[in-house]
Amino acid sequence: MLHLAAVGPSDGLARAGEERLAGEESARGAVRSERRKEILRQRREELGLSQEDLAARLRISVRAYGNWERGLVKEWTDRKLLALAEALEMSERQCFWLFRVMVDRDPPPTWRAAEEARLPEDPAQRDYLCDYAAFMEAVPYPSFLVDHRWDVALTNSSFDLLFQSVRPHPTALPDDNFLRFVLFHPDAAGVLEDHEPGWCVPLLAQFASALAAAPEDEGLRSIRQEVARDPFMEAAYRYGVPHWLSMRGTDAAEQDGAVRAVRHPDPQWGLVRCRMVAESSRMLDEMGLTRITLILSAPLGGPIGPVPGRGGAVHQQGARLRAVPSLGE
After folding, report:
1. Partners of 321 in the β-ladder
2. Is this model's pTM higher than 0.85 or not?
């Protein structure tokens, strides 16, 4: 219906528009509120901590922390969020997304992730890890360092390139915990071909062995609890893994030498066969770390192309050692 430009739409139309916008804003606010609760609860449970444990770390009452986790906070200040990031042992990337979810902005530039606690106390081991970062960057294939919980200590540029399209996630980023990524990240199947039989089941078998060897390990127990909350993963863990091992033998669960497939973002590779090579060294063994490299070979159904990250086609950004500050800092 026509109306005079100087007068504008009728009051009824204006109110309808305002109500529609208010409804959309309310819906977005509800989704954001649930997301805030989820990121705190999931990270706490990932660490195997209770609300009482977190309250003790934050030096606040259990009731006060319960309000934080339920979203009953008048204002999320930098001080509160940084304290949360430290108490929840968040990496720099996780802290970034904590701020983005909670207050829709970046952390203050002076913040540094509380990674010092993860560093080896031995200065020789620290120096070794710093030099190992340069060594890893020279590897042309996706390569990463993990501990017995699959927590990732180091990735190289080729690894980052392979997983560059993966969206943020509060607990299952590929460069935070590789097992959680394989099992729980919704984007995992987009990179890891034959995701369920080729990746989930073998890693669940390896996880079962690790948990049997260290049943009191809080990190492994928290992963087991998360598996139990996922009906599909729980069924795979209880029934799929034993059946798979009975058919293929226990050697099938070994990482070293396993042949799988990934979908590489570089179109010259696309769907590509890869062999997993797991290796260590004396000093890595002392730190409980293993290097896993995905040796990419011929693309499935196509000719061999140049190695991504070589020949100037892909820019190398340098290794990212999560437990060791960069030399420029």
Report:
1. 154
2. no
